[in-house]
């Protein structure tokens, strides 16, 4: 007799349809339970950025970048001997300030999250320039306190030049939370790390002329009203100034706020009027020109050339006193300053357009519109007496000269490479 394998005559159990439906429902309910009770995926920027730092090679790059040219210890303060953490280093102002500090021998480490508020390839191009000059730009977010603490563990920064922010007035109506994330939460995160660092660095940071908001007294002086912001951007910068006061008062952080007035120049920001006017005039596209209501005159800005702003930033660093806190505790009164950095000669936007037309040798197609209520103010004009006195700040570039340098850069950058802005 041949033994049959035991399974030959075995048949599928005879499940009835209701039983099958019952087990299928139990199975589906189980899957649903697991999905509902498992933690959501973390898409926060902190997580995304922490993976890119921390290796030995990364630490070495940070150390090398922070090294001053003279190799003397960073506490022998003075130009060429400082170790500066520059946040927003791949940004417009940040890249210029980082270059200027590196050029004179300071150690500079950059930090930037390379967000896509405007074309990130422009930020990458600035990063390349910085790397060629010896400045390492760490990719990360100012809200990532673990990363910030790590940077302070590796380097005893003497100064922080804080330029990372969500900039732009109009975008605040589209993406308000990005302003809270970078300009408020990010600022607090940075101050928290600075106050706990030993030694505490001195902090210089970018506020904005937008804090003057609906103030009508001109030129705008530091003591004028700043309690009527016209945009969420302005409100977050004003909040930043108050937060700075708190960290100075409680923890002895030396803090200097700089209210920049419409900065322009090579490697500028594509979201700003002078930049996209240039692009659109070249393409033959109409540009919007906003008209002020009759009784308010024309829309005008105190355009300030980037090199003048850089000098103001560097002077603010050089005149910043040391923070007085230690181990997170204040040991004495610390310096707290706010300066206007402007050009002191407001120019109507129509004049800006005619200078661009001459430089580009092309007429603009102007689309004249009533000024929308989108956060923009009609007029800015800086009183710079205080910066003159304390920082020896003296803007030297007029709009015609500065725009010529911008247009030359623009044509070179976008012309040669077929990049599109
Ligand atoms: N350019 C101006 O006319 C002007 C005027 C007034 C004030 N400001 C202020 O000056 C500073 C520099 O402005 P800019 O024109 O160079 O702008 P920018 O946008 O070119 O530079 C800011 C940089 O910060 C980075 N960044 C933003 N949020 C970040 C975050 N959470 N973590 C890390 N990096 C972050 C961005 O990627 C960007 O590269 C900003 O604080 C801005 O608000 C600029």
UniProtKB/TrEMBL annotation:
Chain's gene name: LOC105160575
PANTHER family given in the database record: EPIMERASE-RELATED
EC number from the UniProt entry: 5.1.3.6
Tree of life domain: Eukaryota
Quaternary context: Homodimer.
Gene Ontology CC, one term: Golgi cisterna membrane
Kinase in keyword set: no
Keywords of this entry: Isomerase, Membrane, NAD, Transmembrane, Transmembrane helix
Membrane-crossing segments per the record: 20-38
Topology versus the membrane: Multi-pass membrane protein
Family, as annotated: Belongs to the NAD(P)-dependent epimerase/dehydratase family.
Enzyme class, broadest EC rank: isomerase
Name of protein: UDP-glucuronate 4-epimerase
Reactions catalysed: UDP-alpha-D-glucuronate = UDP-alpha-D-galacturonate
Subcellular location: Golgi apparatus, Golgi stack membrane
Gene3D superfamilies, per database record: NAD(P)-binding Rossmann-like Domain (3.40.50.720)
Segments forming domain NAD-dependent epimerase/dehydratase: 84-322
Keyword Cell wall biogenesis/degradation annotated: no
Alphabetized GO MF terms: UDP-glucuronate 4-epimerase activity
């Amino acid at each position: 007799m041949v033994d049959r394998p035991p399974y030959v005559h075995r048949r599928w159990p005879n499940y009835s349809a209701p039983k099958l439906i019952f087990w299928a429902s139990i199975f589906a309910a189980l899957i649903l339970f697991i999905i509902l009770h498992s933690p959501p995926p973390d898409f926060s920027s902190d997580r995304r950025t922490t993976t890119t730092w921390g290796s030995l090679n990364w630490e070495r790059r940070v150390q090398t970048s922070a090294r001053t040219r003279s190799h003397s210890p960073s506490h022998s303060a003075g130009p060429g001997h400082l170790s500066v953490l520059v946040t927003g280093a791949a940004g417009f102002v940040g890249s210029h300030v980082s270059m200027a500090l590196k050029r004179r021998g300071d150690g500079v480490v950059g930090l930037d999250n390379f967000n896509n508020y405007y074309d990130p390839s422009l930020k990458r191009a600035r990063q390349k320039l910085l790397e060629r000059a010896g400045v390492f730009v760490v990719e990360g977010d100012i809200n990532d306190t673990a990363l910030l603490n790590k940077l302070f563990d590796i380097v005893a920064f003497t100064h922080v030049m804080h330029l990372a922010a969500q900039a732009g007035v109009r975008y605040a109506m589209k993406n308000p939370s990005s302003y809270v994330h970078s300009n408020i939460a990010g600022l607090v995160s940075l101050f928290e790390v600075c106050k706990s660092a030993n030694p505490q660095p001195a902090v210089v940071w970018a506020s904005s002329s937008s804090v003057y908001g609906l103030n009508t007294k001109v030129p705008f002086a530091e003591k004028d009203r700043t309690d009527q912001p016209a945009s969420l951007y302005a409100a977050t910068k004003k909040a930043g100034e108050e937060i700075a006061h708190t960290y100075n008062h409680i923890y002895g952080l030396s803090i200097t706020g700089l209210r920049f007035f419409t900065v322009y120049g090579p490697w500028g920001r594509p979201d700003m009027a002078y930049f996209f006017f240039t692009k659109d005039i070249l393409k033959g596209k109409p540009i919007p020109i906003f008209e002020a209501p009759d009784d308010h005159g024309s829309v005008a800005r105190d355009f300030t050339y980037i090199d003048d702003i850089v000098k103001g930033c560097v002077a603010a660093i050089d005149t910043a006193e040391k923070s007085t806190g230690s181990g997170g505790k204040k040991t004495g009164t610390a310096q707290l300053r706010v300066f206007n950095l402007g050009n002191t000669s407001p120019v109507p936007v129509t004049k800006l357009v005619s200078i661009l037309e001459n430089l580009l040798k092309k007429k603009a197609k102007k689309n004249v519109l009533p000024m929308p209520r989108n956060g923009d103010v009609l007029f800015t004009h800086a009183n710079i007496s205080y910066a003159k006195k304390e920082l020896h700040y003296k803007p030297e570039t007029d709009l015609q000269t500065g725009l010529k340098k911008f247009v030359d850069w623009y044509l070179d950058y976008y012309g040669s490479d077929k990049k599109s802005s």
